[in-house]
Specification:
about 260 residues; mainly alpha; 8 helices; 2 strands; about 70% helix
């Protein structure tokens, strides 16, 4: 179908990499455990160690640096703003001053901690899940017992977000063909509001057609799952190693 969302992710992993050989459920569980453990840490040193481990996962997954760099660009841009403003907006002992603005030591430490934590979680998610196709991720979540409605919403989003984007581009192209130029004026905002309303109406109409087509094909409220692979020795070894590492990290953090 024209304008459909791509079935493949834009970051292709090497099929020969150790991460690619793991079951998607193992990768999803490891990601949840890693992110949850990093967020529970109090020690900055252990968070830096977690960042190094996340970088190792990127190397194990053998992800292409071009696609990964594009994905990380938006995250790093946000972190630069965080590092620039948080030290000056957090009360505490002044560390240095730029004109009338003083940066606190507590604010700088807080900004660095957040930057390390966000980067560690982001790299871990990319390393473990970045090479999975979205449909594989949805089916893995369903097999792990995720709420069916949540899985349905995720799979529908993957399938139709490209169609809605294409529809929005066609409507905007039609407006431009009629001489519309986006400006911060009353007419410009009203035209953009009409665009959003028309996109919502067409999205609802398409959703009704999809629902009717699914009912005609016998949809009973549950989507059939793709045949999945079974847990193997590599999954058991990786899961055991991850469990031991995360447990040791949490214990070390509490003892520290």
């Amino acid at each position: 179908m024209s304008g459909a969302a791509p079935d493949r992710c834009d970051v292709e992993e090497d099929a020969r990499s150790p991460i690619a050989r793991l079951d998607p459920r193992t990768r999803l569980l490891a990601t949840i455990g890693f992110v949850g453990s990093v967020l529970a840490l109090d020690s900055l040193a252990l968070r830096i160690a977690a960042l190094a481990v996340a970088g190792g996962l990127i190397l194990l997954a053998r992800l292409p640096l071009v696609g990964l760099r594009h994905r990380l660009f938006h995250v790093e841009g946000f972190l630069l703003l965080l590092l620039a403003f948080l030290p000056f907006t957090t009360p505490g002992a002044p560390l240095f001053a730029i004109g009338p603005f003083a940066a606190s030591e507590a604010g700088l430490l807080h900004a660095v901690t957040l930057a390390v934590t966000i980067n560690a979680c982001t790299l871990a998610v990319f390393g473990l899940l970045g090479g999975l196709q979205p449909v594989q991720l949805g089916h893995a979540a369903a097999r792990l017992g995720a709420p069916p409605k949540l899985v349905h919403l995720f799979l529908f989003l993957v399938r139709y977000v490209g169609l809605f984007r294409s529809e929005a581009e066609r409507l905007l192209d039609a407006m431009r063909a009629r001489g519309f130029v986006p400006r911060s004026t009353r007419h410009g905002w009203r035209s953009l509001g009409n665009l959003a309303g028309m996109l919502l109406v067409r999205s609802l109409e398409r959703a009704e057609r999809v629902d009717e087509a699914m009912r005609c094909r016998g949809f009973s409220g549950r989507l059939p799952l793709l045949p999945g692979s079974r847990f193997g020795q590599a999954d058991l070894a990786f899961g055991a190693a991850a469990l031991v590492l995360l447990a040791a990290t949490l214990v070390a953090d509490r003892l520290a």
